Amino acid sequence: MKDTVHSRRQFLQKAALGSALATGTVSLPVWTNPELEFPDTLPEWMRVPGDEFSNYGQPSAHEQGIIRWISANPAAPGNGVSWTPLHALQGTITPNGLHYERHHNGVPQINPDQHTLLIDGLVDKPLSFDLKSLMRYPMVSRTCFIECGGNSNSGWRSNPIQSKAGYAHGLVSNAEWTGIPLKLLLEEACIKPSAKWVIAEGADAAALNISIPLEKLLDDALLALYQNGERIRPENGYPMRLVLPGWEGILNVKWLRQLRLTDAPIMSRDETSQYTELLPDGKARQFTFINEAKSLITSPSLGMMLPDNPGIYQITGLAWSGRGKISRVEVSADGGDSWLDAELQGPVLDKAFTRFNLPWHWQGEYAILQSRATDETGYVQPTREALIENRGKHGFYHYNAIVSWEITEDGDINHVYGF
Amino acid sequence: MKDTVHSRRQFLQKAALGSALATGTVSLPVWTNPELEFPDTLPEWMRVPGDEFSNYGQPSAHEQGIIRWISANPAAPGNGVSWTPLHALQGTITPNGLHYERHHNGVPQINPDQHTLLIDGLVDKPLSFDLKSLMRYPMVSRTCFIECGGNSNSGWRSNPIQSKAGYAHGLVSNAEWTGIPLKLLLEEACIKPSAKWVIAEGADAAALNISIPLEKLLDDALLALYQNGERIRPENGYPMRLVLPGWEGILNVKWLRQLRLTDAPIMSRDETSQYTELLPDGKARQFTFINEAKSLITSPSLGMMLPDNPGIYQITGLAWSGRGKISRVEVSADGGDSWLDAELQGPVLDKAFTRFNLPWHWQGEYAILQSRATDETGYVQPTREALIENRGKHGFYHYNAIVSWEITEDGDINHVYGF
Predict the structure, then answer these.
(1) ipTM of the assembly?
(2) What are the structural domains of chain B?
(3) How many residue contacts between A and B have a Cβ separation below 8 Å?
(4) pTM beyond 0.95
């Protein structure tokens, strides 16, 4: 890998591409129909009236392969994950049908009329809210990603997993969430000065509970009721979930039924035996809430192929950081020897997916494509080598190293470890 | 209506509301469960494992009433519209299943492998593109609304229609569209200097065609392939549609199969006998492409009810303009005698839905709620009176007057004409 030579000339800056397209100085493949006229007969679907209107639409039957990929425990099928097919999506919004899932004991079928949220513990005025009462509170929207702490954890394996981009890194999705700033509800309950933590519990059959610093709930946390405009989906917490922008998925408790204010964390199963990180010295890191900056080239990526004709390809992908806005994404075609800035698609939002794009003139050579994100705090996404040096070889959570796609001379794409 | 007296004190500015909630100086209804403890038995859904994972999710069964409302021609069921239930949605994104529909002869079931886009007419190099070739071009995303020219046209009737907000004004939706800037494809075809218009044709059984100024296609037009992240839905033009930000729906041609460059408009059915506006002097206005600034209070609105206890309600709604960003939304509770600025939810995007919010302390009195949008060009949404004075009583398209919701002392909500 290291001895292949690549230069920045492989990449076409936006201006150069525009001019190349206009003047023909770069031989952009033009897939011209030799006839350049429509066939004599109209296609079948123009000769008969089309389908009728629908109350709630669905994707085309031709897109049935674009699905969440399910990986569940055969003995307990409600325990596992399903992955967002990031490699097949574009833009930044994850449509609701494809938002990733992580359940510990399945998706509860909650009757919203019988669901309440209780705020109690270290408060002067314990409060209980039903849906109808919550609808009287001010709501705000914010677009942000939610990422499972276990996303991309196949990266800890000795050999690179040969899964499509979304099916290795798609335990992250991005949506416009709308709900009530939790600060309003907590302050109405009159928080006692001794309260420092909040134990959040979900109304699923796992009764999943976890400890969250009160400070975060008073900052930008939402009690989300809507996801991309409509009521939140069952698998995303219907009728209500916590949304903690930038903090790992498990803290964004779904089917939220209780917030109990305490002076200390509860040391629940999911913050002790799970969702902690074994370090090189044998100690475990706990309460690592924030998803650090990360990026992923979604196209070209494994499972696609560059046709055998060299030419211009659009490198595109996603970057995100739990600490704020993405400030820069660099792309390399030579395994990290040289880098060029990709274009960031605006508006660049805080703690949200940012799409990056960079045209690439592939000349049929061997290449290793990588992307490297930097966030507004200056944090730079690490190489796999650096991540392992820092965190050891036996990690499981919070893997955010640079991902490398190998392009062979034939245009095949494989996952490799760049370092 | 006119003799009721209302003052600005009815509205609570954001700061005041926050402090009221924290100190209890305003008697916010607190819907406290008298027990304040969970019942002895867990709800049914916590006692059995939940549902398994799904490849593509759907809304909760409890939300089956949140649908597009279909209004089609019984004799030609593919001709008509379906309305987005704006009154039941929150935030700014319209989920794909609920994006409004307007079809002239149904939804064609297109095989994407057999669909091509032809660019011909006044170009030096006619071009034909299939899906595979289009995937090689640079894409951009933009969030914008699309609004049917006939949206809200019940406003021309003599008596106010008693339909829910979305079912009278929901031929408008807002999505993140991703696709190829049309400028790139048109310039690759080498436009002849004599080309001034483009005739766009769809691959539906209506073979809908319409004339668009070339200038717009070289500005911000997209050949959209993705809608809120996933491939565009069949009823929204699968596999590709024109998106012309801010221009009326019919020009955003779905199932796009041809762009023919010409020196003059084609005078098609849908730009002569339809989608024109009869003016008071008997002449018709043609080629009115832009959706002017408009707003709508989505809650409270017809079909909801204010409970019989007065208190704080959140007024919320949507505003949009085909000429740019929304700069201001004012709200009145007294039929337009006094106005207060609502808070605009950021980020405020160009030619996209902007949500506005204003808390309102309803004291049980008769009220008429209205919203009035101003866009960045300074254009102010007109009263119905002003619109009719300017455009006459026999219009059908481009109705954008202020909408008035009457609140009775009982908390019932009706649609009224404010003027």
Answers:
(1) 0.91
(2) 8-15+290-416 (2.60.40.650), 101-285 (3.90.420.10)
(3) 377
(4) no
